[in-house]
Design goal:
Radius of gyration: 35 Å
Low-confidence stretches: 28-35
Order of helices and strands: HHHEEEHEHHHEHEHHEHEEEEHEHHEE
Strand order of the largest sheet: 5-4-6-7-3-8-9-10-11
Distance between the termini: 131 Å
Structural class: alpha/beta
Largest sheet: 9 strands, mixed
CATH topology of the largest domain: Rossmann fold
Shape: extended
Number of domains: 3
CATH class of the largest domain: Alpha Beta
CATH superfamily of the largest domain: P-loop containing nucleotide triphosphate hydrolases
Number of helices: 14
Strand content: 15-25%
Mean pLDDT: 85
């Protein structure tokens, strides 16, 4: 039986309408939830943040593990975590070695691994102790590795040292995996062999994405590689390339400017604890090593801090890096902007005079200077008397000009 609406008070109707509206939104309100005097309580609103905390309860919140500056100030540095230099590279950290293709990076890796395995200095970088080095690489085949392993002979290692190299170095070939699949392999290799330093050669072979993509690089380095290094208590040394073409004028670069000389995104430099660059000089086979990041901790120099050193390829067929000679360093340190005429006098022979065009070509090949600069320096050499101009008459035209050193 329907109730006569005309006999119902306006206040009763208002309450019924409000109740119907609330039930449409949140469902019927139980009688136990009604207040005294027939007045219903409004729906309860959860305290601020309770919903968020409830949603996060399924995945536990990361717990605080840090401390205050005062707490840290009362701690002592754990030197057992240092692997290279003065905390240049430590357990859990990573570094890049960057150089153009085909300049001897793989030989550098082999030589450093052998010397660090012995606890010896390599390229001026001192290991904290004899280190276990695991190299995972896709750069060289088995024949290349066999050739490079002859460094053991070139260094003249003793029988005891050979045993230590055998125990402390491991090379693995991986050329069928990239990205997460590769890092799963890395995790397994480290668990089996337990190295102090993992060397990855080269980075681009294993990234599995665009080298210029921040998200791809950060996922590889921060999301995946960092936890692996932390879990196993080792460090990573990653070999990387410069861009294929490079038109930058680096004559005025400071060591810190070289931090961004590798191909790809700047996040590589941001991730790395240390950054070492190998830069070819104008002298064939001579290279400048630049401690671009954490240079103060690499250990070059005794009384004064050194950020650059020079190394050279051994002469002949021997695969070995050796310290550059003083003459090599003096020549390599020159740039085309501070060249003097006497720097080019050796291009002019003592016999068999050469033409100006030949001199230009030689100057361009060795010093990367242009036609006008070469002509000006040749004129200076002639004015100084270091070079003599020889004119040979030619019928019907100007005499030919050739140059010989006095």
């Amino acid at each position: 039986m329907k109730q006569d609406v005309s006999s119902v008070s306006p206040e009763f109707l208002r309450q019924r309408i409000e109740k119907a509206q609330r039930e449409a939104v949140s469902g019927p309100i139980k009688k136990s939830e009604t207040a005294n005097n027939g007045q219903e309580e409004p729906p309860k609103v959860p305290p601020f943040g309770e919903k968020l905390r409830q949603e996060q309860s399924d995945t536990a919140l990361r717990k605080l593990t840090g401390a205050s500056f005062l707490n840290f100030s009362q701690r002592t540095i754990d030197e057992s975590k240092t692997l290279l230099g003065n905390r240049y590279l430590c357990r859990g950290g990573g570094a890049f070695i960057v150089a153009p293709s085909g300049q001897g990076k793989s030989v550098l890796v082999a030589q450093a691994a052998i010397l660090w395995a012995l606890g010896r200095l390599a390229f001026g970088i001192r290991p904290a102790k004899p280190l276990r080095i695991l190299i995972i690489q896709a750069e060289d085949d088995e024949g290349d590795i066999i050739e490079m392993s002859q460094i053991i002979e070139h260094l003249g290692l003793s029988d005891e040292e050979r045993v230590l190299v055998d125990a402390n170095t491991q090379i693995e070939f991986v050329n069928d995996a990239t990205g997460d699949e590769f890092l799963d392999i890395v995790d397994g290799f480290i668990a089996q062999w337990k190295p102090d330093i993992l060397i990855i050669n080269p980075y681009t072979a294993y990234l599995g994405g665009d080298i210029k993509d921040d998200a791809v690089n950060n996922h590889f380095l921060r999301n995946r590689l960092n936890p692996i290094l932390t879990k196993h208590g080792c460090a990573a040394l990653i070999i990387h390339h410069t861009p294929k073409t490079n038109f930058r004028d680096t004559d005025k670069w400071k060591p810190s400017d070289w931090q961004y000389s590798g191909a790809g995104a700047a996040c590589l430099t941001n991730w790395s604890r240390a950054y070492l660059v190998v830069d070819p000089t104008e002298v064939d086979g001579v290279y400048k090593f630049i401690a671009a990041k954490r240079g103060k901790r690499i250990g070059w120099g005794e009384q004064f801090q050194v950020y650059e050193t020079y190394w050279a390829h051994s002469l002949g067929d021997k695969l070995l890096w050796v310290p550059a000679t003083n003459d090599d360093i003096m020549s390599a340190a020159k740039t085309k902007k501070n060249l003097k005429a006497e720097d080019l006098v050796e291009l002019v022979p003592l016999v068999d005079p050469i033409s100006k065009e030949t001199f230009r070509n030689l100057a361009k090949e060795k010093w990367k200077i242009g036609r006008d600069k070469a002509d000006a320096l040749l004129a200076d050499l002639t004015d100084q008397g270091s070079v003599r101009e020889i004119r040979t008459p030619r019928p019907g035209t100007n005499p030919s000009k050739k140059y010989v050193r006095n």
